[in-house]
Amino acid sequence: MKMRVAIEVVQILLSVAIVVGLGMLSAWSYRPATDDIWLVTSVAVLVVVVLGVRQLQRAIAEHRTVSGSLAHD
Question: How wide is the angle at C-alpha 63 spanned by C-alphas 57 and 64, nearest 5°?
């Protein structure tokens, strides 16, 4: 696994952890809106994953292109 691909994977994992952590703190601090907070947190996690996967696909494609061009030289 090349560095850019690894960085993208770590970025997705850290982003999801941060979003969930903020959701937990928000739900803890304002109990009446716990259900709404978790709904918003779930949507935010989904958005983070979708955007992260797109970047991960680009990194993998770039890695394959670079690896393929080096193999032919």
Answer: 90
Instruction: Look up the pTM and report it.
Output: 0.80
With vertex at residue 14, the alpha carbon angle to CA 3 and CA 29, rounded to the nearest 5 degrees, is: 170
Indicate the SS3 state at residue 25.
Answer: helix
Please write the tens of the pLDDT for every residue from 9-41: 999 999 999 999 999 999 999 999 999 999 999
Q: Quick check: helix, strand or coil at residue 30? A: coil
H or E segment and range at residue 41: helix 34-72
